[in-house]
Task: structure prediction
Amino acid sequence: MSEPTHAFHPGTFRTVGLIGRLGNPLVADTLVRIHRLLTARGVQVLVEEPTAGMLEGLAAPPKLCHRHDLGGRCDLVIVVGGDGSLLGVARELSVSGVAVLGVNRGSLGFLADISPDEVEAGVGEVLAGAYAIEERFLLETEILRRGERVAGGAALNDVVVHAGTLSRMMEFQLFVDDEFVYEQRSDGVIVSTPTGSTAYSLSAGGPIMHPKLDAICVVPMFPHTLTSRPLVVQGNCELAILIGDYNDTSPQVSCDSQVDLHTEPGDRVLVRKRPGPLRLLHPLDHSFYESCRSKLDWGSRLGDKPRD
Result:
């Protein structure tokens, strides 16, 4: 992946889209603050239609826009919520190439990294051109049944093929660029991007990958063997997961834990890099390693007492 660079100049963000996580009063408060900041700077603001219902107390009604149209009409889209909110936006807007900025109102905040206490300063610096921009690639998946495409989806974090039933295992074969890798019986398999390496893949024992890596990680889920380990392959590889004919469950394919697709025995699940990366903006002082230290508690030592 490319190094973070300054891709825009001050004044380029003339039209900015706003998307917020619904049902959270803290998100609503932050959205109002951002909307007022943008309008005070002379920026045209387009608000996603469901999000508009959270904006109260504005001097004038917000200008509405369907989410699918924000990418084509905006120079920048600001997402207020957690990383989960940003995942959905990434799948829908990455193909447009629009820049995306996350304001964290969730928990970890690996993607949405502007603190709500620093909204005015953080967003103001971005509008002034003080930011770094990264490209994060997504995965696309499709399910082939007797050679015909029956379903598909995209993911910024991971594509997970799992048994679909609690306490049941599934059988599958893994191929990389049409080369047989292994046959496995397990709860399933996680195919992760570097962005997703700090998400579900991490919980399953996968490695942490720097976001700039052009690589895909394959992580078995509770394999019925002691020798199965995570596998990292080049980012331009195509992975194929062949669902075993003798599974007594209906395995499912999950994209970012937000989109579920159903398979049948004999189906072929293809996973590859999706054209069109997510263009993610960060404050200039953003550091992936600092995020790991703070979000994953790398800074603690054995015997340290928790702070009050």
In short: Residues 145 and 267 are 5 Å apart (CA to CA). Confidence is low (pLDDT under 50) at residues 1-8. The two ends are 41 Å apart (CA to CA). The chain is about 20% helix and 35% strand.
